TrEMBL record:
Full protein name: Ferrochelatase
Family annotation (NCBIfam families): hemH
Gene Ontology process terms (BP): heme biosynthetic process
Residues given in the record as Fe(2+) binding sites: H192, E295
Catalysed reaction, written as an equation: heme b + 2 H(+) = protoporphyrin IX + Fe(2+); Fe-coproporphyrin III + 2 H(+) = coproporphyrin III + Fe(2+)
Family: Belongs to the ferrochelatase family.
Entry annotated with the keyword Iron: yes
EC number of this enzyme: 4.98.1.1
Subcellular location: Cytoplasm
GO annotations of cellular component type: cytoplasm
UniProt organism field: Mucilaginibacter frigoritolerans
A GO term for molecular function: metal ion binding
UniProt cross-references to CDD domains, sorted A to Z: Ferrochelatase_C (cd00419), Ferrochelatase_N (cd03411)
Length: 341
């Protein structure tokens, strides 16, 4: 009997922490028109002329800090575990493949495997809880470009986002609970940032995101695809599960690149403000990531942790990502089985 194909796709990571591989990764990633969304001439100049040459050696040093001798990049390591655990869970009726949007394993090679197995359908899950054109949108465009050239196109489905998935929220809450959030001075929900213009472009009404006061802080029918509003919603659901009162947490955005305005407030500014207010211990959730990666392990723990301590704080504790938690695999299984063709 024909199997059902499942394609899990995460962002991608360099093949090694060496500068040449980081350069190759950053060039592929940042030349994506959905990531650096400016005209092609300016994008090529910015990426190939400035960002890649200057950033690659610095990023390579950071990747070396988080690279494990045996398992390599945490992002790839946990993605491989998630793939294996989900495949085991789903059994013979399904064929599950893993791909990365950038670098390896490629989306092309994973789709080729599903094609060769004559799967009856393909369900694509971009592993980003909140929708952004630069992440989920880019994965789905790439899949459509490849599959669109096939002679026979199977039934295919995409999940726009899973920012409010109950089992995912519970997994983050369970991970946080073990640190006893009530013993921390303040809690941060730090999401990957996004240029503000990308929020505006995702607003199909053209007069809501960043135009109406508080527009991107509350999810509603008008802004249901807004990355910021979805992020706020995820954070509120985790905070509710843990009974964290509103005044005890802040939603913020990290990893800004370049000088254009990104979604605010910036995590670095919040960390500095909290240190100046005399807060000593921070607990940080990063619910834009389903696997620990450079942006969580290094940026939160080392970079923000260092900045916080330099300003008088004592400790920044990262809450682990979903990684290989059984409940997160339950969430993936539920997403797969809940999808009707
Ligand atoms: C959560 C989803 C992500 C969105 C949205 C996103 C947008 C985005 N990112 C950059 C620039 C960089 N991001 C980098 C690393 C990185 N980004 C995500 C996820 C999203 N990015 C992840 C999971 C990672 C970690 C990868 C890993 O190998 O661990 C990097 C590289 C690291 C560095 O040099 O600092 C850059 C650069 C932009 C410009 C952008 C939106 C427009
Ligand atoms: Fe990123
Ligand atoms: Fe918005």
């Amino acid at each position: 009997m024909a199997k059902k194909g499942i394609l899990l796709v995460n962002l991608g990571t360099p093949d090694s922490p060496e500068t040449k591989d980081v350069r190759k990764y950053l060039a592929e990633f940042l030349m994506d028109p959905r990531v650096i969304d400016v005209n092609p001439v300016l994008r090529t100049f910015l990426v190939k002329g400035i960002i890649v040459p200057f950033r690659s050696p610095k990023s390579a040093k950071l990747y070396k800090e988080i690279w494990d001798d045996k398992t390599g990049s945490p992002l790839l390591h946990y993605s491989i575990l998630q793939h294996k655990l989900l495949a085991d869970r789903l059994g013979d009726e399904y064929q599950v493949e893993l791909a990365m949007r950038y670098q390896s394993p490629s989306i092309e090679s994973a789709l080729d495997k599903l094609k060769a197995s004559l799967v009856e359908s393909i369900q694509v899950i971009a592993l980003f809880p909140q929708y952004a054109s630069a992440s989920t949108g880019s994965v789905y465009e790439k899949v459509m470009n490849i599959v669109g050239k096939w002679q026979t196109i199977p039934s295919i489905s995409f999940i726009n986002s899973f920012h409010d998935n109950e089992l995912m929220i519970e997994t983050f809450a369970d991970n946080g609970r073990q640190y006893q959030p009530e013993t921390y001075d303040h809690i941060l929900f730090s999401f990957h940032g996004l240029p503000q213009r990308q929020l505006i472009k995702c607003d199909h009404t053209d007069n809501f995101c960043l135009k109406v006061d508080g527009c991107c802080n509350t999810l509603n029918d008008t802004n249901k695809f807004c990355y910021s509003a979805q992020s706020h919603h995820t954070a509120k659901l985790i905070a509710e599960k843990l009974n964290i009162p509103k005044e005890k947490y802040t939603i913020c955005f990290q990893s800004r690149l370049g000088s254009d305005p990104w979604v605010q407030p910036y995590t670095s500014e919040i960390v500095a403000k909290l240190a100046k207010e005399g807060k000593k211990r921070l607990l940080v959730f990063c619910p834009a990531f389903v696997a620990d990666c450079l942006e969580t392990v290094y940026e939160v723990t080392e970079e923000y942790g260092g900045e916080f301590k330099a300003l008088g704080g004592e400790h920044v504790q990262l809450v682990e990502s979903l990684n290989d938690s059984p409940k997160w695999i339950d969430a993936l299984e539920e997403m797969v089985k809940g999808q009707k063709f």
